[in-house]
Design a protein that fits this description.
This protein has helices at 2-20, 25-34, 39-60, 73-93, 96-128, 136-152, 157-169, 173-198, 205-225, 231-252. Helices cover 81% and strands 0% of the residues. The chain contains 10 helices and no strands. It has one domain (2-252).
């Protein structure tokens, strides 16, 4: 009963964080690993569980989607789907020990992006100048790389997308947040399609169901909450969560 409740609450928190600004993986993955699942299985299960929450958030934001520069939204989404599938395939094909070893460092890297991404973005924008814009081809290549990372691990991939679009195109993160949700959903959907058939994520159906239900509720509430809370408070919540979960994951290892 305790595990059921914790999985439900973790789903709510993860769904809300993804809707607000990213970081749901920092909650879902460590909680599932703490329940005894292997990191690879936990990663696959969390991705499946968070898909409905991401879809729910995308539906809330559906009237606010804006193109990423001159890049076609349809093409960008197709690239996200392909990259997410490739990343998921790498997770399933590479030895489990590879992910076990990489997971804490991926969490640490994603946490650093969360903490320093804005400063790095501003510094690069200052150095390069707003007149320097990436071509559509460069945007698609960068998006594919991020989508592969998102399919393989996923931690803070939404934050990385916002930083990438800001640095390369000078786009405001607040305006592109709805598109971040849409692309995150595309990555999760393609990864989930593989995980459902090629992983053992369904070996824990109760945990999956509880986290899935929680993620839907959290995704819906988080998308609405993101419009009301101050940006600095939202960022502080996400960063604090990421730091705590990263430290705990290293201690576990």
């Amino acid at each position: 009963m305790l595990e059921t409740l914790l999985a439900l609450l973790a789903g709510v928190a993860a769904g809300a964080l993804n809707a607000i600004g990213g970081g749901g993986t920092f909650v879902a993955l460590p909680v599932l690993v703490a329940f005894g699942l292997s990191p690879v299985t936990a990663n696959a299960l969390s991705r499946i569980a968070l898909v409905p929450g991401a879809v729910t958030s995308a539906w809330v934001y559906r009237r606010e989607f804006a193109p990423v520069g001159a890049t076609s939204t349809k093409t960008l989404t197709v690239i996200s789907v392909i990259g997410g599938g490739v990343g998921a395939g790498l997770l399933l094909e590479l030895p489990a020990s590879s992910f076990d070893t990489a997971a804490p460092w991926l969490l640490a890297f994603a946490t650093a992006i969360l903490a320093l991404g804005r400063s790095l973005s501003k510094a690069l924008n200052t150095a390069l100048g707003r007149s320097v814009k990436m071509s559509s081809r460069a945007v698609l290549i960068g998006q594919f790389i991020l989508a592969v990372y998102g399919g393989y691990f996923g931690g803070a991939v939404g934050i990385m997308m916002l930083a990438f679009w800001s640095i390369g195109l000078g786009l405001d993160a607040a305006l592109t947040n709805p598109m971040r949700i849409a692309q995150l959903t595309a990555i999760y959907l393609s990864a989930t399609a593989l995980f459902l058939f090629a992983s053992d994520a369904l070996s824990a159906p109760l945990l999956l169901t509880c986290m899935l239900v929680g993620a839907v509720a959290g995704g819906f509430a988080g998308a609405h909450l993101a419009r009301r809370l101050p940006a600095w408070l939202l960022r502080g919540i996400i960063l604090t969560t990421a730091m705590i979960m990263t430290v705990l994951y290293f201690l576990r290892g």
